Amino acid sequence: MCPFFKFSRYVTVKAFRESILTCLKGEPLEAVLAEMRQWPPRKVVSPLIGCLFNGDERIKWHAVSVLGAVVAALAETDREAARTIMRRLMWSLNDESGSIGWGAPETLAEIMAGHEGLAGEFGHILVAYMRPDGCYLELPALQRGLMWGMGRMAATRPGLLKGWDAPAHLLPYLDSEDREVRGLAARALGLLRVDAVRGRLASLKDDSAEFLLYDRGELATTTVGGLAGVALALLD
What we know:
It is built from 13 helices and two strands, in the order H-H-H-H-H-H-H-H-H-H-H-H-E-E-H. It is mainly alpha-helical. It starts with 12 loop residues before the first helix and ends with a helix.
């Protein structure tokens, strides 16, 4: 059991945050989620958002997954509280916020993957982050999270993404200089079954650029070409 569940209500903030970090380092993801769900959502949201900045990839991605589950569950009993968290994540991506919003695009997508109502309310904003005429995210590091989020939503809410013309806005990212961005864009387009990009995906099959992909609780090395090949197979 994660250490912080043993503490009394008088546990210090520092100890509470450290115990969350310890929990997020665990595996498998299902065990981490089971432990974190035992704590009131409002107690863990802020510390989890702080973990999105962590340099340890496992901690960061487990925080994304846990936040997705926690906020989606919260939305079932208190939709407005869940909306407030969504707005907090979006605000972190705003230039006026003074922060960079690390982990925010992928966390927004993870939450919406788990809750249809929130996806209907906020999904168009995630698409707008791809658009130069929208709320375009310029930093490649943020675009990586956005492309991962597009893939997460494509696997769970493809109809919504297509309704907001997401495939057309994804296309330019196939030409990104960032390996992770173009690889994840290919993955998302395959999951959306966009047959019109078959030729473009084929041209990426020999792209051997590697990066870490988080999928279903696991981190594994993949390549742009490998993801393009998987995307092509989904079109057959």
